[in-house]
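Hi everyone,

Forwarding the result from last night's run.
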Amino acid sequence: MCLAVPGRIMELSNRKAKVNFNGNLVTVDVSLVDAKVGSYVLVHAGYALEVMQDDRAQELLELFGELEEYSNEGHS
């Protein structure tokens, strides 16, 4: 299964971006999208695949948070 995760672009330089994933900054290749600092991007395998609307990114982040809480409660 493949999973793409939303993150916010914090810095941008030469088609590489520092993207914030829940407090972790990761270097991401943004050559496939029209990236801007402050935008959310959907990332898979180190590549930004899509620039996301803020509300859609927040929905996904909330869903991932709920899934993490559920799994921490001992459900599998």
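The chain has a mean pLDDT of 92.

Cheers,
N.
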